[in-house]
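Explain this one:

_____
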Amino acid sequence: MTHTARRIGRSLALVLPVVLVLSGTLAVSAVPWVGQGSGTQMLTASSTDVSTRAKSRAPQDVLRDKLLAELQEKDPAVALTHLQREVENRPSLAKHCMSIARSLGTAAVQRYGPTKAQTFSRPVCDTSFAYGVMHAS
């Protein structure tokens, strides 16, 4: 008797999940998700007012924004020092150093004018800060 019950239990354990998955799939596919002729959509999960996930930003863009804010709060010398430290600590940012320094030079001209901005120049990233100052003038 226990042998027969055990065989039935094993058979049910194999067949029952398959039956449940198939019946669930068939039940979902048979539901009228869009009303016939009424023009209303019953499934609201795909509505257009759902907020979308923000795109992640590249590390160099985050650093550029941080340094530009620092330039506005303090001065370009502090921002250039922090740029140099970040490039030393994270060598992957070295290829973006020149463009970030140019952006800082351009922002310094907008904030301080070309003559005063040039006084902050230093040899960070092959004098790209000075190029940004010159280009913005």
Remarks:
- Residues 2-30 form the longest helix (29 residues).
